[in-house]
Amino acid sequence: MNADLGAFEQVFCAVPSTKWMMMAFIIVTNWAIFSILTAVVSDNMAMLTEAHERDLNEREAAERDERRAITMELMFKRFDKDGDGEIGLKEIRNMLSDPAEMAVICDMTGLEKDELHDTLELVAGEGKGKITHEGFRQLIQDGWNKVTGHSFLKNEARLNDILKVLARGTNRRMKRQNSV
């Protein structure tokens, strides 16, 4: 029993139906208390789960960044054939001609081969024909944010396609309205 109901004995004897009412009251209040308790526990579990997932994601991101930094260091050393701390145009062209190297760099940057080629040529052109170790690291870490001519043309072509679709839809609506 949840409580001592001895004080209600006289009421229960005088009006027997009050036993059923008291029983219903106790059941309903227990359900309410248990549902509130369950909601609080569930919310706390959800918050702890989110915090744990956030911590895991941060750790994974840090590990991924560390692996990426090591890979970048190894790649740069491999591309810098003469060991002067810079990748020259000749070394860039050698790198771009090797399909395995291109696949690794494309995978790291998320760029296609032609976009990668244009970007490397652009950066090398800005740096007097060479890319420094710091420049190479920034290119890969910053996600190749510089706009290349190829990526600009690609986006322009996509926008033109969208405009054509919109124009067709507008023309159809105009024809429907004119026919009505």
TrEMBL record:
<feature type="transmembrane region" description="Helical">
    <location>
        <begin position="20"/>
        <end position="41"/>
    </location>
</feature>
<dbReference type="InterPro" id="IPR018247">
    <property type="entry name" value="EF_Hand_1_Ca_BS"/>
</dbReference>
<protein>
    <recommendedName>
        <fullName>EF-hand domain-containing protein</fullName>
    </recommendedName>
</protein>
<dbReference type="Pfam" id="PF00036">
    <property type="entry name" value="EF-hand_1"/>
</dbReference>
<keyword id="KW-1133">Transmembrane helix</keyword>
<keyword id="KW-0472">Membrane</keyword>
<keyword id="KW-0106">Calcium</keyword>
<dbReference type="GO" id="GO:0005509">
    <property type="term" value="F:calcium ion binding"/>
</dbReference>
<keyword id="KW-0812">Transmembrane</keyword>
<dbReference type="InterPro" id="IPR011992">
    <property type="entry name" value="EF-hand-dom_pair"/>
</dbReference>
<feature type="domain" description="EF-hand">
    <location>
        <begin position="67"/>
        <end position="102"/>
    </location>
</feature>
<dbReference type="InterPro" id="IPR002048">
    <property type="entry name" value="EF_hand_dom"/>
</dbReference>
